[in-house]
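ugh ok fine here u go
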Amino acid sequence: MSTPPDDRSSPLPNGYRQGIISAVTILIGFSLAFLRFWAFEAPGEWTSRSVIAAIVLGIPIVLEIYVLYRSLRLEDDEEREYVKTVRWFIASIVAMLVAVIFAAVVTSGLL
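structure:
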């Protein structure tokens, strides 16, 4: 007879959590540095489009902080929760890419 499947998640191999925490902190560092340069150090005047772009740049930063929070929880040591955290991380990367492209378009004056 076969045993029924176990509903519990399997624990992560060693190093997985440390890897995602490192990746998230690197991305947060880039995001904050980019926002600082783009919003405060770049030449030019503020317009309504640049304010919108700055807000759009802030959204992925909030997502990244949420991913960092998820990755530091004890529950993230289970594979099922870790997979959810990785999905949030990928979403924050895509959001940052879109925000950077939008900021570049606003800065170039194409809008």
